[in-house]
Fold this sequence. Notes:
Helix content: 25-40%
Radius of gyration: 24 Å
Number of strands: 15
Order of helices and strands: HEEHHHEEEHEHHEHEHEEEEEHEEH
Strand content: 15-25%
Number of helices: 11
Amino acid sequence: MTKKAIETLTIGCFAAFIGVSAIWNACAPKAEVSYNENRTLAKAPELSVSHIFSGKFDDDFETWFSDHFVHRDAWIELKSGVKRAALAIENNNVYYSGDHRLIGEFQDVNEKNLDANIEQVNRFAADNHIRMNILLVPTAAWGAETDLPSGAWNVNQESLLEEISGKFPDQNFINFTQHTSPSPSMYFHTDHHWNESGAYMGYTAICRNVLNKEPNRFTYTLASDSFEGTMYSRSGAFWTKPDRIYTITPESGEQKVSVNYDNQLTSESLYSKSRLNEKDKYTYYVDGNHAYVDIRTDVTHGRKALLIKDSYSHILIPFLASEYSEIELVDLRYYHNPVSELLKEDQDVYVLYSLDNFCSDMNLAFLR
């Protein structure tokens, strides 16, 4: 076979592959949601003259075609596996770590945004004549540092917390790293949140710094053994063993609670069992993200708590519910009413975020 014939055959095979792939992708069923990536997939682009001439159709078509490529999840997993086999230490800002753990990078701090958030919290406390309790939880890049691959680099979170602590001179700053040693057991393998063990350590720090008491004891009942979290979705390492989700109950016995979500839906449980059928099973705890949640418990002493928080607080709530008669949760991503209107007597006010999110979140500007 001549060189020209080989070249022609190669071009023909490649063109046939492209053509068959295009037809296959066009005719294949289209999903609306990617389970593994935990997101909604792009819809078919709108075919109109204005979209074509503006270039928007081309951009939308490229996104749609990529989202609905046949066996997309398999290709994503293959790419991640090839990078892993090539000794890459991360994919899509997630480290491949020891003990089959996926750890998100924390490499940058937006100092300007961080200072603005600190100033906003201090101003809110001063305007309302209160002393706030600040708990910023370090990420798994601190807690599971011993599992990080060689060459991984992240922000020194202990030093960062020390720096932030000095900027809250009038608040009760609870430095988590001074109350417990880093341990991988405090974090999920496939998700960015702390797990029930880490949340218990946070609860213990609150007991000793705010409530001035020894922590209660709890029992843990398996609710699901198939939790595949945000690091699983982002990394493409779909071979990673899933995590477990637990129901957390005071050792003294099950509590009676009433939970109101966004002044609309009321439940008699801190847990949403229907969420265990979804991809993000972390939403089992207080039904995931809501603008406002009001929890009433059978604790009789009348002490109340208000948490200005991100999702790290959700798994902490079963512990705090054993200590407070009422707990209100405010998520500033969705709640834009004056938080000051929620302040009451005999109330402990918290700012409870993951450290990386407190540095980057811009919604604290709504705190007033």
